[in-house]
Amino acid sequence: MVMLQEAFDFTLPEELEARDPPEARGIARDQVRLLVSHRADDRMVHTRFDDLPRFLRAGDLLVVNESATLPAALPATRADGSECALHLSTRLAGQTWVVEARKTTMRPGERVSLPGGATATFVEPYQGSWRLLVARLELTEPWLSYLHRWGKPIAYPYVRGDWPLEMYQTAYASRPGSAEMCSAGRAFSARVLDEVRRKGIRVAPIVLHTGVSSLEKDEPPYAEWYEVPQETADAVRATREAGGRVIAVGTTVVRALESSVNAAADLIASSGWTELLITPDRGVRFVDGLLTGFHEPKASHLAMLEAIAGRTHLRKTYAAALEAAYLWHEFGDLHLIL
C-alpha cells in the first residue's frame, strides 16, 4: 500500500497526473471518479461523480464559486527579441495587474510587447514575492475583450495539447475574473445540478477570483477578491440552524466564507480582499463538508483540508486515493469529505 510521508510530502506518480480533460478520455465531465470519505469513522466509498446526490440529504446546502476563468496566458516579447509567457494573476485597479512571467526573471522597469500592439511594464515585486510582480498593462481595448481576443487559458506542462476556454469553465461560471479554473466544480453538469435540486438540496453562490496556482512547495496563497452575497450568508445560517450541512464546492468557497465575518466572527455578507490562510489551529466555522480535487504534495490547500478533516483522516484518504490510482489536477478526479 502507498503510504503518505510526514507533513503530506508524498510522491505523486506521473501516471496519476490528469493530462487531458475527461471528455478527451472518452467520458463525460460528470463521470470522473469520486472518493467519498466520512470523517466520523474513516469510511470511504469509491464511486463516480454523477452519483454525488446519493451522498447528500434534503436540507443540505451546496455553496459554489461563480467565478469564470479568464484566458489569462499571453505571449510576450522582451526588448532583446526573446519570447516568454506572461500569466495574468489578479487585477488590482485599472490596468494594474499581478502577473507571473513564466520561466524567466523580469526586472522592475522592464517593458515587454504583447499581441496587438499592447505592452506590459513591470513595476515592483508583489508583496515581496520572487515569483509575482506588479505590472502596468497598456492595452488596445478593454481588458476582458483583449484577453478573449489574444489570450489562452493558463495550462501547465502536465497538460497535453491546447484546450479551448470552455474546457476550463464550470457549468455555473458567470463572473469573469479567475486566472485559473475553480476546478472542484468542473464535474457538475446540468443533469447533476437538476438532480441535486430535485432532492431538496439548495445551491448558493459566492465569488472568489483565483490567482495563479502556488505550485512551489510551502508557498502560501496570495490575496484574492471575494464576494459573499446576503442571500448566501442567510442560506448558510438557516441551513446550519435547521440541522443541514453546508458543503463547500472547492477550497475557494471555504476561503470566501471564512473571510466574510464581523468582529464577533459571525458570518455576514461582504466583499473585499482576503489573505486568510486556513490552518488546523484556526479551524473552520461555517463549513461541514468539502468537495475538492486532490492537491499536490505540501500544497498550502492541504492545511485547509486538515482543518476540516483532521490529519489522520486526510492521511488515510490520500493513501487510498494513491493506491486506487485517482487522477490529480484540474482535469482529474474529486474527493467529497463529509
Describe the fold and architecture.
With 338 residues, this protein is of the alpha/beta class. It folds into 2 domains: 6-69 and 162-337, QueA-like (3-Layer(aba) Sandwich); 73-150, Thrombin, subunit H (Beta Barrel). Helix content is 18%, strand content 27%. It has helices at residues 143-150, 190-198, 230-241, 251-259, 301-309, 311-323; strands at 33-37, 44-48, 61-65, 67-69, 73-77, 83-93, 96-102, 111-113, 119-125, 133-138, 175-178, 202-209, 224-228, 246-249, 270-274, 289-293, 334-337. The strands form 3 sheets. The chain has a 9-stranded mixed sheet. Strands 5-6-7-10-9-8 form a 6-stranded antiparallel sheet, with no helix packed on it. Helix 5 crosses helix 6. The relative contact order is 0.21.
